[in-house]
Amino acid sequence: MTATVIEPLGTAATVPSAAPLHYLSCRWCGSAAEAGRLLCPVCGASGLVRQISAGVGTVRRLLGAIGGRDTHTQRCTVAMDEGFVARGTVVDVLPGEIAVGSRVRVLVSEPGTTYFAVRD
């Protein structure tokens, strides 16, 4: 007889810790821009404030599938609800399963990499 150890969901081993998705908001005109800019893309002001995104957006453009037959990921650009565009990868989708206009949410956001999942 073998024993199986079942760990409860939500432990540090099962849920990865991730930094939230950040964006920049202009103090003067209020427009949003992706992190990493020095000037506001609308008014050119240098007064940008770092904000935390709610992490929900709409797929704007599909850039191509990544990997082979066993991986289910799709690169895309996502128009976030705050008004900026984020580039990332939607995971756990088959090629052709996700379409422009699909709602997604942020799973993991690290510098240089953002992973999204289809929103239920």
Helical stretch tally:
0
How large is the radius of gyration? Answer: 18 Å
Instruction: Return the structural class.
Output: mainly beta
Question: Residue share in helices?
Answer: under 10%
- Strand order across the biggest sheet? 4-5-6-8-7
Beta-strand level of the residues, as a percent range?
Answer: 35-45%
In total, how many beta strands?
8
Point out poorly predicted stretches. 1-17
What's the main sheet like? 5 strands, mixed, barrel
- Mean pLDDT over all positions: 80
Distance between the termini: 40 Å
Overall shape: it is elongated
Taken in chain order, the helices and strands follow as EEEEEEEE
Provide the domain count: 1
Description:
The protein has one domain. The chain has strands at residues 22-26, 32-34, 48-52, 56-66, 73-80, 85-91, 103-110, 113-118. With 120 residues, it is mostly beta strands. A hairpin with a 6-residue loop joins strand 4 (56-66) and strand 5. The protein has a 5-stranded mixed barrel with strand order 4-5-6-8-7. The chain has no helices and 8 strands. The radius of gyration is 18 Å and the shape is elongated.
Set out the fold topology.
Layout: E1 22-26, E2 32-34, E3 48-52, E4 56-66, E5 73-80, E6 85-91, E7 103-110, E8 113-118
Short description:
This protein is mainly β.
Features:
about 120 residues, five-stranded mixed β-barrel, three-stranded antiparallel sheet, disordered N terminus, elongated, mainly beta
